[in-house]
Here is the input.
Amino acid sequence: MKFKVNNEEVFASTGGRPFDKNKPLIIFVHGSGLTHMTWVLQTRYFAFHGYSVLALDMPGHGLSSGKSLKSIEDMADWISNVIDAVGYKEASLVGHSQGCLVTIECASRYPNKIKTLSLMGGAGAIPMNPELLALAENNDPKAVDLMMDWAHGPAGHFGGHPVPGLYHINTGGMLAKSRTIKDTLGVDFRACDNYKNGFVAAKTIKIPTLSILATDDKMCPVKEGKKLANLIEGSQVDIIDNCGHMMLLEEADRVLKVLKKFITTHYPVVTK
Amino acid sequence: MSDKEKKKISPKTYKFDTLSLHAGYQPHKNAGSRQVPIYQTTSYLFDDVDHAAALFNLERGGHIYSRISNPTVGVLEERVASLEGGTAALATSSGMSAIFLTVMTLCEAGDHLVVSSQLYGGTVNLFRLTLPKFGIKCTFVKPRDTEGFKKAIQKNTKGIFGELVGNPGNELMNMPEIAKIAHEEGIPLIIDATYQTPYLCKPFEHGADLVVHSLTKWMAGHGSSMAGILVEGGNFDWMQNDKFPTMTKPYEGYHGLSFAEEFGPTAFTMKARAEGMRDFGPCLSPQNAWNVLQGIETLSVRMKKHCSNAEEMVKYLLAHESVAWVSHPSVPDHPDHELAKKLLPNGRGSMIAFGIKGGKDAGVAFINNVKLASHLANVGDTRTLVIHPASGTHSQMDEATLKFAGLSHDMIRLSVGIEDIDDIKNDFEVGFRAARKPRLVSNQ
Amino acid sequence: MSKNPETIALHGGDYRSDPATTAVAVPLYRTTSYQFNDTDHAANLFALKEFGNIYTRIMNPTNDVLEKRVAALEGGLAALTVGSGQAASTFAIMNVCQSGDNFISSTDLYGGTVNLFTHTLKKLGIECRYADPADPNNFEKLIDEKTRCFYAETLPNPYLRVFPIKEVSDIGRKHNIPLIMDNTASPVICKPIEHGAAVVVHSLTKFIGGHGTVIGGCLVDGGNFDWTANPKRQPLFNEPDMSYGGAKWGEVVPQLTGANVSFAIRARVCLLRDLGAPLAPDNAWGIIQGLETAPLRMKQHCSNAEKAVEFLQKHKNVVRVIYPTLHEGEIAKRSKKYFKGGNGALVGIEVKGGVEAGKKFIESLKMFYHVANIGDARSLAIHPATTTHSQLTEEELLAAGVTPGYVRLSIGIEHPDDIIGDLDQALNNSGKPNLKAVS
Here is the structure.
């Protein structure tokens, strides 16, 4: 569906079900240079089981208009504005990669608004390889190819997508190339590299938090993910083996299973 | 890591020859079996009621019924998608059904396609006579007439379709230019790349949006199994205009789903599977998928030999006294010689057309006397194949259609195999000798 | 040739042994192409002056054995195998209809066929009009000059009302409209061609294959319909086809073959050629194996189903049992009129307690498989309200005949005691309050 935030049009997938204000809201926040489509194998379940789902396209990404936001802090505020714009007082957040930085910052800034936090392939900081950053800022498609290489585990490099017939390295690559690389991936990478507040923000978070990490994640390694999780009180960690950073696609079912259990436990649908 | 390596980072995603052996399959998820298992099953057990509902709602990936998808077929689909550099693929029971499903996913009654006039005879019949019965009209344009493609586009045109190298005249479409024309009009370019395989050309790199193959041919190579595939490039923006409402609007044929919004770079394949395959049902058997996978394992090594044998045969034919003309993009005075160098850098393919001196009778005599080359209605077998279209594949066409397809009575179509080159040449000598005495042969 | 299905299933058609080797078992011809004897042979084949193998998309010797055998089983003259039952339905309609035409289908229809007819064929300009088969005259009311065929299933889910084949076929023949019957759920026990159907289609995946290993479909040409009697009614059989030098299929096929098999030949040489949905020879071979025991299996399917029905009718947690013989009045008589040797393997039940009970019943089954299929040798069950039909609203569900507690059973050929035992324990469990949640 489309709606406006700060006078710019925002697109969000509602997971194949009509958006219903009477249902609890879950917001999915994608990673650098990507779009709402990375969540297609997680969102639809919740949409079909009593939740209202918004898998967002960040400003300037996918089908959303406007310019890409330049800092993680701006993105965190923007998420809060999204919640207001769709007429909600609270929501659960799910983030992937850069989306984890955004959701941590958001939960820290708006503690009463955010009810649970689910982090996939998250870390307290995501410093960028300078060469990769330079390629992205120079609009070089090689940046996307590198990201897809590093973001997939050894198993993921062979394919084996849960949706029959889909080849995920190329699918992810096409998503990241769907808009001008320097304006999406370039700006996002710079924002990640600049963000230093992750560990500080994490310490302030008191809501139920889940971290899903993957053994073959080169971009946000298990060690880094655990470091972050340890700072969040009572946070829960789940580790997926034989899987890389693109766990949403590489091990979609296993991610969904863990996420399902966490969200339905800590953020249940209350039937009136 | 040396300093030099540190400076030059480059993606280490697997390359063509590796993908042709590995893509789409992870042994650790299949009992450790190194080779792809054949899932000879029609149906799949649901874990529970929720699982079943999740599959029907497209909440999760997985298999419901082998008409729609099958794990063995799925490996083939991913493997071909990876080799083409595409996002997704859908395998079908023949190359023709791949074309049919593509058209059905793109068009409905009242729509129009611009189509290259140099196509396999079956495809010509589909576009010229069968699709109009279902309200889909086509305008044919000669493959070299790049501007003609532009002129033929109408308001209701939903795509441009062609074989990169037209059969049987070996005429090339200027794919990058025609892709530009298509994209200016907001419609996709669909390329039948059966004769090239991704080893010779990856059409997505030159602007194509969808690729179809008859896998029966070079991809499988063995001539044992029928199969086709539709591959999606993932780069076409279906939402840029209102030409494709069944892709972009909530679609009543699929519970109000908007495929473009929900699946983006794989939307076309998702729709072709969820609607076209579900309803029309031309599914590939798992056994055939497995056979084709065996073929693809040797695609690179076979294609090298196909192409080197073909170039040898071109030289041999050019020098032969019984040969009137030879058409192959490797011949320097072939009108598309330069374009072929650009689009087909790894080889110009193994299809040769040549004219035999003595016309139709000589052609008949040649075909009836070669012993190694097989006379049959196929191309792209590992074995050398010959046919005389005027008396074979195209004999059902009237005179006008024959001319329209660019055929002549003296033309012999040759699909060069991977036998020893000397044996092929020796066999041809026997054929040519007989062709020089046509009367004697026909009296036998 | 014998008229008995047990014999036809093993010997039907003209295959005795392989001409090349005298092998008795049907050889698997896993080839795409066939060598021509000479150029004349090739030309004759392409011009249809002579019939023979050209290319496996169009014909294959292994498939040929299956085609002739199924034709014999159904009492038809010729058959054509295709890649799936769905492809068979598609071909059946596209062989007689073109853009601007319409056809009339029974409302009692498999969901996949409904999608094809309602949404997908519509995009090709072919209109499907639905008639309730409760009264055969409903078909006549919808006919206009563009109506090309009638279509129905012999034993359709979910109501399992046997279709009035002769009544509707007679109406069609008055107007020169052929009746196409999908006989997937009732091979052997019903032969629609004997009752006037012009064409029979099958999903061979189901009872004829029986093993649930391969997908396949076929069309059987009854050879009992005059395609040329009213040229305006059947233009595709009476107007020249420019893709075959102006051949008029209704005339040329009987001339060439000496048989009235225009429907089967046109579907083969036009639709398989252009739309290309061939059955893999491996799959044809797999189905030939299944077919050998189809008549024996059908007997067991039917007798097991009858025993299950008897048991289910008495069970306290079953509100209603749906079975062809349990209808009332005219519709109950149809099963007697059209079925011989049994009433099929499909049984519907309404589990007491609605959606939750239906769901619990399915999840409590231990031997029955929970899959989206019918006609396997194994017993199968599915709860449409939470699976195949879960996208529909409650009203849409009811319109499709799917009540919240409705469960579809396809009774297999296991020992009847084990079938009843599994149903019994699952039904008892379905009535219990949610124990799982408490524990």
User: Anything to note?
Assistant: Chain B has two domains: 14-296, 300-443. The CA atoms of residues 99 and 212 of chain B lie 7 Å apart. Confidence is low (pLDDT under 50) at residues 440-444 of chain B.
